[in-house]
TrEMBL record:
Transmembrane spans: none
SUPFAM superfamilies found in the cross-reference section: Acid phosphatase/Vanadium-dependent haloperoxidase
PANTHER family associated with the record: PEROXIDASE-RELATED, PHOSPHATIDIC ACID PHOSPHATASE TYPE 2_HALOPEROXIDASE DOMAIN-CONTAINING PROTEIN
Protein name: Vanadium-dependent haloperoxidase
Alphabetic keyword roster: Signal
Extent of the signal sequence: 1-21
Length: 463
């Protein structure tokens, strides 16, 4: 009788130990049984992983942001965020291999010496060393601050062997990333001459403007070959291409033209105060904005460090690949910007478009081809990754825009609403026609789904 009681008690304790509420374990839309590959998780104990929080990951994300947010051209900022966050994810998953990695393989990792007691020390060392090395390589001006934070983290680790092992893992993760992306070309402005003066063809004939750094030069476009860059998480830059800009002589084009002409200009009376706020709010760089939202939701759902690193890395991968894929489409169509189209509206061959030679967009038009909208592409991808990660669309959250509209907060009840508002902001800014943002958002959703389903998947457990 006593034996039966002990067995029953053991079963109850076992059940309690390995069960927790939905809020305690981050939902994972990937079914472990469906994963492919031969990577295996050795000596896995979710309770051990759960004991590692996201504090150190947050510190490094915030430190990087203080040096690059709104200080670089948007695609370059996105690429730095992608390489940085993926490296931290790779480092963690070479401490204990819970998920697939990107640059530093983890199929030979044996985590048998890692326990709930020592996991924070080695994980902090690995994450911090990887983050410091990536910051020094990608943002040299941040090296002193990165060294200071690294020293702060490492000085708190008492176990010398754990510290040294974590540091080595972090160094290897950063080295692997830098080596894998060593063939990437620089992001530069390129002198542009239009292939023709036909209606619909992009013309670099609108005023340049000042970034936080260099002047965007006249008669130039920014990194028009970005679509040739090797993607991070999708198969190819043309993977999601489909559709095209509306013909300039079509009714659909005229509808989009007249809409943006009325609500996207510098002093449009038809644009509501809220639409103006939306445009100004979402002009902020995408990678940093999405990173902040991810940190908000990580705290809201109490995700552990492994899930936090995975979510942020997937998002930044999706954002960067959205730039690559959208720029590949842009180069295919070389479609003109609304500022050019509206100034030439009387000569475009469409009787439903009336030109205005003095028309200006609400905010200066960036020197990139118009179709499709990259912001819509990236917001669609990020929203889909959020949806798949949390297994639902309806989540209440709020976001801020500290660099553009400090003190203003926008609230949402779903990721779909969040994505659509960002997309429509490009209309109110006068940068993109409605068809461009709708196609961009849809392609981004497809890209986000692919990135989530094919990267950083949970490893199989050893039976």
């Amino acid at each position: 009788m006593k034996t039966k009681f002990h067995i029953l008690l053991a079963l109850i304790l076992f059940s309690l130990l390995f069960s927790c509420s939905e809020d305690e374990i981050p939902p994972d839309a990937t079914d472990e049984a469906s994963l492919s590959g031969d990577l295996s998780l050795k000596n896995f104990n979710y309770g051990m992983i759960k004991s590692y929080d996201s504090e150190t990951i947050f510190k490094w994300n915030e430190l990087l942001g203080s040096f690059i947010d709104e200080k670089l051209p948007i695609p370059l900022e996105a690429k730095i965020y992608a390489m940085f966050t993926i490296s931290m994810h790779d480092a963690l998953n070479n401490v204990v291999p819970v998920y697939e990695t990107y640059a530093l393989g983890n199929n030979e990792v044996d985590a048998s010496d890692i326990s709930k007691k020592n996991i924070t020390q080695i994980a902090d060392a690995a994450v911090s060393q990887a983050a410091r090395d990536m910051m020094a390589a990608l943002s040299p001006a941040s090296t002193v601050a990165a060294d200071a934070l690294l020293n702060e983290v490492l000085s708190s680790i008492q176990e010398v062997d754990l510290k040294e092992k974590g540091v080595e893992i972090g160094k290897l993760a950063a080295q692997a990333m830098l080596q894998k992306r060593q063939g990437d070309f620089p992001f530069l402005f390129t002198s542009y001459t239009a292939p023709s003066s036909e209606p619909g063809v992009y013309q670099a004939n609108f005023p340049p403007y000042m970034l936080p750094g260099p002047v965007w030069p006249a008669n130039a476009v920014y990194v028009p070959n970005l679509g040739d860059l090797t993607p991070f998480g999708i198969e190819s830059s043309d993977q999601f291409m489909g559709g095209a800009p509306y013909p300039v002589t079509s009714r659909e084009y005229a509808d989009d033209y007249n809409e943006i002409k009325a609500v996207g200009c510098a002093n449009c009376t038809a644009r509501t105060p809220e639409q103006t706020e939306i445009g100004e709010f979402w002009i902020e760089n995408m990678a940093s904005s999405i990173n902040r939202l991810a940190r908000t939701l990580i705290l809201q759902y109490d995700l552990d460090g492994w899930e936090a690193a995975r979510l942020i890395a997937l998002l930044e991968m999706g954002v960067m690949d959205s730039f690559i894929a959208s720029f590949r489409e842009k180069a295919e169509f070389v479609f003109w910007a609304p500022i050019t189209a509206i100034r030439a509206g009387d000569t475009d061959g469409n009787p439903e478009t009336t030109g205005d030679a003095t028309w200006n967009s609400m905010k200066p038009t960036p020197p990139v081809f118009e179709f499709p909208s990259t912001q819509a592409y990236g917001s669609g991808a990020a929203s889909e990754i959020f949806r798949m990660f949390f297994k639902k669309d309806e989540i209440n959250f709020s976001v801020t825009s500290p660099y553009k509209l400090p003190g203003v907060e926008r609230s949402f009840s779903s990721f779909s609403e969040y994505s659509t508002e960002q997309s429509e902001a490009r209309i109110f800014l006068g940068h993109h026609f409605r068809h461009s943002v709708e196609v961009g958002e849809q392609h981004g959703i497809e890209l986000g789904s692919y990135v989530f389903e094919n990267n950083f998947r949970k490893l199989k457990k050893v039976k």
